[in-house]
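Before going further, learn to read the protein records used in this course. The integers have meaning only within a learned vocabulary of local backbone shapes. To see the layout at work, look at the sequence and tokens printed below.
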Amino acid sequence: MTQQKTAATSSPDLPPRIEILLVGMNGDLRGKQIPLEGEKKIWDGSVRLPSSTQSLDIWGDDNDDITGLSLSVGDPDGACIPDSRSLVPMPWAPAGSKQVLATMHEFDGTPSFMDPRAILAALLKRFEDRGLTPVVATELEFYVIQDDWRETGKPRPPERLMYRDEPNGFQLYDMSAVDALDGYLQTVRAWARAQDLPADATTAEFGPGQFEINLLHRPDALAAADDCIYLKRIAEQAAKLHGLKSTCMAKPYANQAGSGLHVHASIIDRDGRNILDAKGGDPVKLKSVCAGMLDTMRDAQLVFAPFANSYRRFQPGSFAPIDLTWGFGHRGTAIRIPDKDGPAARVEHRVAGADVNPYLLLTAILGGILRGLDENLDPGPVTEPGKDAPDARRLTHDFLTAVEDFSASPFIADVFGPRYQKLYGDTKRKEAITYLRTVSDFDYQTYLPRI
């Protein structure tokens, strides 16, 4: 069993607990809270939950009528097998409390086809079979808002921020925004340190109350996804402590920047060499890897933008890419090459929103990279700073179109498995159709008086 780290707690007089957590389809955490004296059952693999837990949609519905995975088959249990590497303290809980991530398994010992951690692990096995290891880092953007959104029906920036009432009051890199929420950010950093997360720089982003936290690279993509899930939870729990709320909605404000989750990736071989290193020459492998990600990007857009709100982020003139383009150091492209030479040679995927499931995100990205490594692909003309982008295919702005592209893709079937492709596609189709059937305030304000 992994050695438990010590951490401060806000509830020292309450009994400690351990939480065993499963990651759901939408990146949500579900599981069980167990008294610490019952911890042995976790490591024995005897904690069970219904297998359908990981088929729940954004509302928590099992959609048995379209998936047939719940009551239709008796809603069978699966075994929650913990990953001891992910055992960390919960600094917001009573002293000695901890949490651990698990992967759902069938009782024959095979991982569930619905488990996002298992899906990513299966793809990483393909790299391992080639003697390759992805090295991954993530950059998470999120907003901090006042915790009165239930009463107001909408988010509003924290009271103490300078620019909170200014529609164009951008706070990018503004240390006064960091200072204004320093107590909250210090708590996030302290709790990240307690969980041994490789958190690095924290910066104020464009929108009021928007911040970015970088997680340093990991030569273990599964651990990198775990880090990201844990960071989201830390941001949420720290916000509660400070009377605030954090949100990873892709576009919480109509007139402010959306929140993204950028991914940096390189590939090392058995000898620890970065195989994307161009060594001062033509970055052939880097370009082929870019092409692999671009060729599969439309098929996987439903993973990068999993909700109706996600598509509000893709707007012309924003830092959220809308074209399938690539470039050297160009932050307006979908795929950016920050460095092409040396150990730091890598690609940056800039499409996903902060609302993404990090396990499915890395599966889609690394699946595209694998295609670029297995084939010699041409990404097309490079996008150069100060020049118009070359003609390129575009990402869709439509949720339902992304669902159908995902559902029909041979790439998705190969990387995620045909059963998960159908489950995810059918569940998201229901969500998209529900969204289309919802008449909004915009409809009433715009059309009712005029039509």
